[in-house]
Amino acid sequence: MLEVKNVSKVYGQETTKVVALDNVSLKVNSGDFIAVMGPSGSGKSTLLNIIGGLDRVSAGEVILGGKRIDNLDENALVEVRRGKIAYVFQQYHLLPSLTALENVLLPLTFCGISNRTEKAMDILKRVGLDKRARHKPNQLSGGEQQRVAIARALVNDPELILADEPTGNMDRRTGREILSLFDHLNEEGHTIVMVTHDPEIAKHAKEIVVLQDGKIIEKAKQEPARPRQRTGAR
Amino acid sequence: MKLYQMVIKDVLRRKRRVAYAALGVVVSVMTVVGILTVAHAAQARIYNQLEKYGPNLIVMPAISNLDLRLGDLMLATLTIGENYIPVEKLRHIRQITDDEIRRGLGINNEGNIATIAPKLYTNTKVNGMPVMVVGIEPQEESKIKPWWRVRDGDYLNAPDQALVGAMAAELLKLEVGDMIMLTDGNDVAVTGILEETGSNDDYLIFIPIQRAQQAFGKQGMVSSVDIRALCNACPVETITDRINQNIPGVRAVAVKQVAEGEMGMMEKLSKFMLALAGITLVVGLFGVLNTMISSVHERVKDIGIMRAVGASHGQIIKIFIYEAIIIGILGGIVGYIAGTLLAYIIGPLIFEGIAIAYVPQYLLISLMVAVLVAVVAAVYPAFRATQVKVADSFRAL
Fold first, then answer.
1. Residue B217 resides in a domain
2. Which member of A81, A86, A109 has the closest CB to residue B6?
3. Does residue B275 form part of some domain?
4. Does the distance separating the beta carbons of B390 and A95 come in below 8 Å?
5. pLDDT for A11-55, tens place per residue?
6. Which of A93, A121, A154, A155 is most worth mutating to test chain B (most B CB atoms within 10 A of its CB)?
7. Which residue in chain A is spatially nearest to B4 when comparing CA positions?
8. What residues 267-326 of chain B have any CB closer than 8 A to a CB of chain A?
9. CB within 8 Å of B16: residues ≥ 6 apart
10. 73-102 in chain B: CB under 8 A from chain A
11. Under an 8 A CB cutoff, do B302 and A95 touch?
């Protein structure tokens, strides 16, 4: 469903040039769960941003569902973000003035859809936060905020979920809960690309891609190690 | 949830920042409303102040004495018949004048509006010297000549009194209390002597008009009528034309120099006010622009989030414009109230004894101006907001 072909990304000018990605190619198939690993500055977040059309490539192609998206203008990229791709960030990135429920409804608001409160409540229930729907982000714990962010990502039924260190700000226990939520989503058929530097987390994925200095140095498929108990849907 | 609902929630959270942005609008609207309200209340007073120019309309008999003058020096009087205006026509003149003013100002009040001062000129001899005696309506005349100051004694307040011009008093050696014998054999007492005015009035003797008509056998007649009629919506020329067309036997002449001077002054005054208001608006606009730009900087992350979950450029602009409209409505209402209060405070300082009244229509103007200013000020910041790169917005934080 998604293909990254010979993508390079260079920041800065001649003298201050930083190569963030160097001729990277990657294929994501429907139902995949790919963990992108690598040390800080290896270019893994840049790769995720480029896949999602948040950042521009310096060279190469990004193809989503058979169509190039690397050369789309802003308006066309908006369409991609509205339906096909959703993000989950390390910092949750919820709007502080809106309640959990309203944050989940936000993508629909931008699509011009209102009156979908029921659907949003259903999704909040799936991530175990229906009782906190009327709370503002600052009244929620980190784990709860990330659940809201995941619910927000799901509300548009995206084909691909991109997650950038989604458990990076959490203690182990909360992190495990969030991870099992991703496991569960993947089992339901959602395609996931997740950036992480933690090998424990990467074990949940079906494929591991390791980046170093902007190059893919390792690609390996694996049997995902997923705990039996499901703490995701409390 | 609709987009505007999201904006309202956001505005409610950032109350202080929004209030700060609205402050720029409040100050501008306050100044504009303050100026307008004071000007509105002061209009009548400004016209009063303008009366120092004297009459701006003179009605004479269609055929009249022809004064041969060189400046203020009268060389000779060429009399062509002895024509007067019958008193009955005064009522007609007043009716036309008041009518035009009422129409021009859009008012309905009964009673007299224009100042109409009829005069009867007669040549006579006092102490053996030729002098001109003028019959006047004391009240009207003092309104039309506010520069008159009585040097000795009092102003006319009884029928058998006379007011003497400064030069006439000197030449005729008249003092307060002296008696002047008129042609019918009856006396009038000198009740006051005018300060020098530098005009013909210095050489004249003024007595109440009824007394003059009686004394010189000119019952029911006047020589000319000075009229002071002014409102910005009814040019003196219109009144002149109507009098000339409707009343036979008289000739109305607009004192162009005076009329044009007055209109020019009103025009300058309102131009000055508008310029002042305009400058304030521009200053307010930059105030709002500034707060809006820092609001964009503050919300780079929020904008990035909104872009990431599907907001288009147009929607980002809408968000800022909606916010500007809220700021405009808030600023417009508060600015109207503040401006009206300001008028109540500073109005009396500018024009003594002025009665300030709030003008409800200005609320609508305030709202329109405020929303316009806020929206115009929001355009550039909103454009800046669309330039936020999603990836950068997160990296920066």
1. yes
2. A109
3. yes
4. no
5. 887 788 888 899 999 999 999 999 999 988 888 888 998 888 888
6. A93
7. A109
8. 301-302, 304-313, 315
9. none
10. none
11. yes
Closest to A86 in 3D by CA, of A205, A211, A210, A185? A185
Give the mean pLDDT of chain A: 89
**How many other CB atoms sit within 10 Å of the CB of residue B112?**
11
Stretch 105-144 of chain A: residues touching chain B, C-beta under 8 Å: 105-111, 114
Find the closest chain A residue to B316 by CA distance: A110
Number of domains in chain B: 2
**Boundary of a domain, candidates B254, B277, B292:** B254
Instruction: Please indicate, yes or no, whether residues B99 and B41 belong to a single structural domain of this protein.
Output: no
Claim to verify: residue B190 and residue B305 sit in the same structural domain: no
Examine the domain organization and report whether B282 and B373 are in the same domain: yes
Angstrom distance (rounded) from CA B372 to CA B397: 34
User: Is residue B153 classed exposed, middle or buried when 0-12, 13-18 and 19+ CB atoms within 10 A define those classes?
Assistant: middle
pTM for this model (two decimals): 0.69
Cβ contact, residue pair B6, A96, below 8 Å: no
* Shortest CA gap A98–chain B (Å): 7
How much of chain A exceeds pLDDT 70, in percent?
A: 97
Q: How many whole angstroms from its chain centre is CA A158?
A: 11
Q: Measured between CB atoms, does B2 come within 8 Å of chain A?
A: yes
Which domain range does residue B282 map to?
3-45+265-395
Same domain, B216 and B344: no
Give yes or no: residues B231 and B327 share one domain: no
HSE at residue B321, side-chain half, CA atoms within 13 A, is 12
Whether residues B241 and B340 share a domain: the answer is no
Interface check for A70 against chain B (CB to CB < 8 A): the answer is no
Task: Return the residue of A nearest to B388 by Cα.
Answer: A54
Query: Is residue B190 in a domain?
Result: yes
* 8 Å CB contact of A94 and B306: no
Domain-located, residue B260: no
**Closest partner CB to A87 (pick from B302, B308, B313):** B308
Q: Is the dihedral of CA A98, A101, A107, A112 positive or negative?
A: negative
**Inter-chain touch B309–A81, beta carbons under 8 Å:** yes
- CA-based nearest residue to B117, from B133, B131, B135, B103: B135
Q: Are residues B228 and B362 both part of a single domain?
A: no
What is the distance in angstroms between the CA of the first residue and the CA of the last residue of chain A? 32
Tens digit of pLDDT at every position of chain B (397 positions) = 889 999 999 899 889 888 988 988 998 899 889 888 887 777 666 665 655 556 778 888 876 456 666 666 666 666 554 478 888 888 888 888 888 877 777 676 666 778 888 999 988 888 778 888 999 999 888 888 888 899 888 999 888 899 999 999 998 888 898 888 887 777 889 999 999 988 888 999 999 999 888 888 888 889 888 887 765 556 677 888 888 888 888 888 877 666 666 667 767 777 887 788 888 888 888 888 988 888 888 888 899 899 888 899 999 999 999 999 999 999 999 999 999 999 999 888 877 777 788 889 999 999 999 999 999 999 999 998 888 887 777 664 4
Rounded CA gap, B148 and B151, in Å?
A: 9
Note the residue count of chain A: 234
- For residues A185 and A154, give the distance between their C-alpha atoms in angstroms, rounded to a whole number: 9
Contact A93 B301 (CB under 8 A): yes
Taking CA–CA distances from A83, the nearest residue in chain B reads: B310
Give the C-alpha separation, B231 to B145, whole Å.
18
A-chain residue closest to B390, CA distance: A54
At residue B330, what is the residue type? L
